[in-house]
Amino acid sequence: MKNSNSASMGSGIGKYLQKRNLKADLPASIVVFLVALPLCLGIALASGAPLFAGLLTGIVGGVVVASISGSQLSVSGPAAGLTTIVLASITSLGSYQAFLMAVVLAGVFQLILGLIKAGTIGNYFPSSVIEGMLAGIGILLIMKQLPHALGVDSDFFGDESFFQKDGENTFSALANAFQHFSVAAIAISALSILVLVFWPKFKKLAVVPAPLVVVALGILGAILFSGSSSALKDSQMVKIPEVNSAAEFFGLFTMPDFSTIFDSKVLMVALTIAVVASLETLLSLEAVDKIDPLKRVSPTNRELIAQGVGNITSGMLGGLPMTAVIVRSSANVNAGGRTKVSAISHGLLLLLSLLFIPSIINMIPLSCLAAILLVTGYKLARISLFKHMYHKGWDQFIPFVVTVVGVVGIDLLKGVGIGMAVSIFYLLRTNMRNPFFYRVQEEGNKKNIRIKLAEEVSFLNKASIQVLLSGIPSETNVIIDGANSRYIDPDVLEAIHNYKHNAYTKGIIVTLENIKKTYSVPKINTKIVEQN
């Protein structure tokens, strides 16, 4: 038995380490690493936490969460959507150590959510909303990274909200960037975009990942412009903390304050983080599955458990709360990632860069990294997607557009919430308009109307059925047929029986066919099969 388990485990690992997968995953991990590095630092800065906390969270998200997760392409780390919560929580709790206790407890809450199968909520997000979220993120990437590509933006790299921490908003930051651009940054970002677009078209050159070429050219460009009037400033370069010894490295870790474990404020912060982080994770997971070329389905409950373990680990070491992040995940997909090896490797690269090559990493211009995200943003918000959603009909296109506008103009979670509300409106509207089918037959001076009810008639259909019945002319024979109906709501049954009772006053004869006195709610097979 033991040998068979070992063989099974070995075959599982071997599946991820196949040469074909590694050829795709390792280059993709470099892209994700380059995208994640400044995002981790920027989010830590905006959250009022040490820069090391952001990097640590990215490392844990890559190595720990990706190892446990059932998703092959999702990438976890500190999320811009949590910055406001984190900043306010550190202030309200009075110490960073108390906040770390809240992060640990948030992880425990997520473990519980995963164990009670709460992850299935992710299956109820409409396709139009998920597509809108992806397109909105793509537009946000383009709008937020243009200032970095032009060399002007005082706010942190990766802000995903319309209103920024530096007092600017998305549009004012763009306007400011066009007025105070940097020649060196524009040259580097323009060359980077050209390389990203055309390099993969040459098969012989494509052996070397285009983003790696972009970074090398970015460093070279920064060196060439140094000493000139167009030289890049420190604020236009990546900046990670430099560790000079093992003692200095281990001194960066911070333990949570366990004495606050039962503090009501800590528990409330933990619950808030758990709910928001879980929602953002499930949204990201659904979106990544949608753009996965192999169309794999990720187990949502297992993802919540993985996120819980990740947040417990991050909080115990001094890191920030994390989620599955759509920006990094979509960069992983667009870079050709195939398995979770890509996400795990990006976490290891973050660790190695911090330990061994911080001085080299700090030579990378933000403008060449912005170019990578600009190309990713274009792929997410391509014009063909808008055309495709338009051709699917207004009930799909309007929730899609509303979600895009909400994500771009407010933030990710609120934008998705608004899109969900509009999508539900169209769902209810469609449901109310299609509760029945009826046929009119002329026989002499009398009209015969047969109304065939739908398979399921809910209380939402009551109003439209009453409108139909009230409009039937006098001296008509009406047959209401429930042969196709598995379920008719009690309110609708009552309305039908009341109509039959009162219709004789108008000379209307009502006949009920195949309609039971009561209906039980249809049983649903709730057994959920998840990937191991």
Give a verbal description of the structure:
- It holds the Pfam family Sulfate_transp.
- Its main location: membrane.
- It is a multi-pass membrane protein.
- Residues 22-391 form the SLC26A/SulP transporter domain.
- The chain crosses the membrane at residues 26-45, 51-68, 99-116, 123-143, 177-199, 206-227, 266-288, 348-377, 397-428.
- By secondary structure, the protein is α/β, with parallel strands linked by helices.
- Among the domains are: 39-119 and 187-383, no CATH class; 435-513, STAS domain (Transcription Regulator spoIIAA, 2-Layer Sandwich).
- The strands form 3 sheets. Strands 3-4-6-8 form a 4-stranded mixed beta sheet, with no helix packed on it. Strands 1-2 form a two-stranded antiparallel ribbon. A two-stranded parallel ribbon has the order 5-7.
- The protein has helices at residues 2-16, 19-47, 51-68, 83-93, 96-115, 127-150, 170-179, 183-198, 210-225, 246-250, 264-291, 300-317, 326-334, 341-356, 358-361, 366-380, 383-391, 394-409, 412-433, 462-470, 490-502, and strands spanning 76-78, 322-324, 436-443, 446-453, 456-457, 476-481, 487-488, 509-513.
- The protein starts with a helix and ends in a 19-residue tail after the last strand.
- 61% of the residues lie in helices and 7% in strands.
Sum this structure up briefly.
The protein is of the alpha/beta class and 532 residues long.
Supply Rg. Answer: 28 Å
Average pLDDT confidence is: 85
Strand proportion, as a percent range, falls in 5-15%
**Helix proportion range:** 55-70%
First-last Cα distance: 19 Å
Shape: elongated
Tell me the strand order in the biggest sheet: 3-4-6-8
- Low-pLDDT runs of 5+ residues are 1-10, 526-532
Q: Major sheet, described briefly?
A: 4 strands, mixed
- The structure class reads alpha/beta
- Summed up, the helix count is 21
The strand count comes to 8
Instruction: Give the SSE string.
Output: HHHEHHHHHHHHHEHHHHHHHEEEHEEHE
